[in-house]
Records
---
Amino acid sequence: MNRQPVLENERLLIRPLTPDDWDALFAVASDPAIWEQHPMHDRWRVDVFRAFFEDALAKGGALAIIDKQTDEIIGSSRFQDYDADEGGSVEIGWTFLARKYWGKGINAEVKRAMLAHAFEFVERVDFRVGETNYRSQIALENIGAERTRRTELTRYQGARVLHKIFEITRDGFEAGPLA
């Protein structure tokens, strides 16, 4: 599976993230409101976001989301943890958008394009969401993701962080709200 495709629809261009995207993407990410429900709530800080950005580039799968009307980067997402076994799975996550694009259907358009690409190769797409990130949980339910019984426990700044795992299967996508 190509985890860094170029995807496009009427309003958006989704392309591989590059080191040259730092300034534009940090301009979006530096808004603390984007991260207020996120387990890594301080990702708006330059040092914290720099580590996030460098990790995204190092692991591959990171994508820049561009508004085709303005030609500006408005956010980012990733394909992560691709596994070809048992029908295949991949995680979509680390998605964030500039606040002025919230509530305008952009997240659904990004996820539709990414899911359509992923389901050419895998049977299931997972989403990992912080326990108190209600905004992202609702957004996932709105695109047809279902919460599983799976969870993941990590640590951030010495505190335990619980992530809930949501999923969409190929059949669920084809019958769901993004079809």
---
Amino acid sequence: MRGVVLDLFAGPGGWSRALSLLGVRDVGLERDEWACQTRVRAGQLTVRADVAMYPTWPFVGRTRGVIASPPCQAWSMAGHRLGLVDQPLVHTAVADLAAGRDTRERLLAACRDERSLLAAEPMRYLHALNTVGEPEWVAMEEVPDVLPLWKQYAAVLRSWGFSVWTGIIQAADYGVPQTRRRAILLASRVRTAVPPAPTHARVAEPESLFGPGRARWVSMSEALGWGATDRPVPTVCAGGGPGGGPEPFPSGSRKTLSDARDRGTWTPRPNGTVPASRPAAADRPDAPANPSVAGADRWSWSLRSNNQAHATVRSIEEPAGTLFFGHRANECTWVAEPAHPHVDEQELVVPEPIRITAREAGVLQTFPADYPWAGNKGQQFSQIGNAVPPLLAGHLLAPHLGIPLDPDDFTLAA
């Protein structure tokens, strides 16, 4: 069993999928029942356990790498952020665990959010493994506000002989169709720890004497395959428009593309008329005019991150904002508005918002379209929002493993 990669707080398998595409398997520790079921369906080795309660001795003398993405709810801007209030207690826990002192019970009693202290748990494992000169490398990920804690980890790991890098990275810079900023720690005993070189930029870069420039950030429409010439474009007919016919949904009902498919209104894009109440290539501002596609430029589609007044709204020709789920206020929906500012809106029937599906959300996190999510819709969305994008994980892990990364292996829409 020597050479195990230990994945703490493994979730539905973002890190694990990246490792599998790099030819490596990990053992994931995860508490959530549905995330465990997703992992099992995806063929990933899984131990259903509470990371805070599980013993460290089974991994001592057998572990090559350690991955940790502690739950972010206590620190995330989507929650109450009590982790920031508890941060001094978490720093104390990390310092104590690094010295072999387990003061978690006393510190936990003083925490405002019991999840805050989970960010200290990786140090308990790292201290136990360090007694036998393990692991060879470490990779950790969290929301940006956890960076000061990662810097504390870095100081400890350097004292143990690791090269360490910490910093904030932007997922969109690595081909993820989502502007997801995360605090990262990379450490290695055998290589100089450095962040992976970005492959994408907000604006495409021209070729230079040093080679091709970085590609433009991947948009939602590109990732989902909407508008591609080699695949159908999902559309939902809306009453009142060309080719629309009667409204297929009862007034006030929640719409999803799955509903549309089940009701027989999910249609591939024909060569002629497009009922343009679903994102299509012709909605792009830079798309060439196509007189044969009637009405295809009526709507401009965007993804709204939740139903609150300050929600992030992004055009489908941009990456999504950070995807997070967990309660009704965080429902993501596709929303439409007339593509032309001077159009008479009274002549149009504006499509109602369409709730994003788990398949679509998973693709925007760079999971494959057929990833086997377990549980009901809420449980699936919770897993997706908490996951590490596999493509980002691949960029972070490949240098540690000394394995070339082929982004084309990370298939998105099918």
---
Amino acid sequence: MTIYITVEQVDALLGPTWAPHDQKARAVLMTNTWLTNLGLPEFDPVPDDVVQAGAEVAREAAAGNIFAAKETGVLSKSVDADGVSSSKTYSATARKISAGESFALALLSQYLGTGQAKIVRG
């Protein structure tokens, strides 16, 4: 795992109250794992926009919005009570993306490849 951000950096960007003190180290660990799993390049030093994205994700991680528990294997749920029924079907891989995670991905978009390579013929 690559270290993109530290607790001290998140405190500097978001203030010391972004998470309870006892949750900060785990939130930053989760953030560095999340950033590493995106396949970002190695940086020396880490650019400011990557640090800002990490801070946004750390706040979401502390709130339980990153690597949250998810239900798998169930694609449909239905409820029937006194003749009133409701049903919803979700993809087994569907999940809600938090505002902070979405903002972080926008900040990181220039570093995330499209899977295509530019070819220049000479």
---
Amino acid sequence: MKISIENLTFYCIIGIFDFEREKEQKVILDISFKYNFKDSSNFIDYSSVVADIEAVMKEKKFKLIEEAIIYLDRFLKKNYEIKKVKIKISKPNILPNCRVSINNS
């Protein structure tokens, strides 16, 4: 099975510049992963995945979105029975004329 979580949007501290460390900014995450679904005893609760991702991002206050992607990749593989994770993190308001994104795929 494949789970896709799209447009997960919240505010957190992320970035290296002083203004990014002082005020939360909007981030948007798109995440997808596959897992071996057998029956209802081994499903992955995507609401828990979403809550964990948001909690990690708010708690860690990453300086780089690259660091956030690496950390989330390891976190999700460790805490859920999944092998490959695709993550895209966007900062839609960091520049006035574009959305900046980084992904691990």
